[in-house]
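ok so i was messing around last nite and threw this chain in just to see what happens. nothing serious, just curious
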Amino acid sequence: MYMCLDAVKKGFLAGYRPIIGVDGCHLKGDHGQQLLVAVGKDPNDNYFLIAVAAVEAETKDSWGWFLEMLLNDIGESRKCYINLLHGYIVFCTETINQGLMQIFQEALPTLEYRFCLRHLYANCKKAYGGGTVLRDLILSIAKATYVEEWERRMNQLKEINRDCYDKLFALDPKLWTKSHFTFLTKSDMLMNNISEAFNGRILEARHKPILTMFEWIRCYLMTRFAEKKKKEERYEGSVLPKPKKRLDIITVRAM
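result:
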C-alpha cells in the first residue's frame, strides 16, 4: 500500500530543495511488514514527509516499486520536471541496503544518491573498531569542503587504519563527502536524520493495522501542517529559526 498526498506533492514541487531521504523501518503488528518512507526537508530544516508505503520486506523489487511510484508522483508533469528528476534530485540512504543500491545502480542510474554518514561510520566501526580518533577523522573527511583537504585527511586515515582507508577509498567520494558533491541540489546534507526522525515520531502508529496506521499518518500530517502554518504567521523574522541559528554560528566563527 502506497500513499502520497496531493498537497504534499504540490508543496514539495513548489519550493523544497530536491533532496530526499529514503529509509525503511519495521512495523510492530502481527503482519510483520516494513514501512518505506521518502522524506524531504522544509525551509526550517525539519522533516517533510513526501510518501510512505507498506511492503512485505526491504527487497530490490519493493524498493523499485516504491521509487517508481514516488517518481511518477513528484514528476506528474514529467515534461516540466524531467530535468529535476534526472539531473537535480538527490536521494540520501543508508549504505547497508543492497536492494536499494541495486535499484539506484541498475534501474535508475541517472539519479544521484548519497550515503548516510552515520551508517557509513557504523559499518566502519563494526569492521575495524571505533574510537574517537577514527570517528572524528572519518567525520572530518566527509565534511571536507575542497578536494585538497579531503586528500590530506584521507592520508591521515591511511596512516591510522589502512583497512578502513581502503574501504572508503574504494567508494565513489561523490557518495559521501562534501568536497565531491554536486552543486545542483544546494544541499550538503550528510546524514539521513530526517527519515529516522519521522520513523521515530510515528512509533505508536507502527503497532496499528495497515489501514489504521495510514489514517493515523494522514491525520498527523494535517495537524502538523496546520500548526506550522500558525507558527509561520506569528513569526516576524526574515530567516527561519534553525537556519538563523546556524548562520549566527558561522558568522561568529568567521570573525
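not much to say yet. DSSP finds eleven helices and six strands in the chain.
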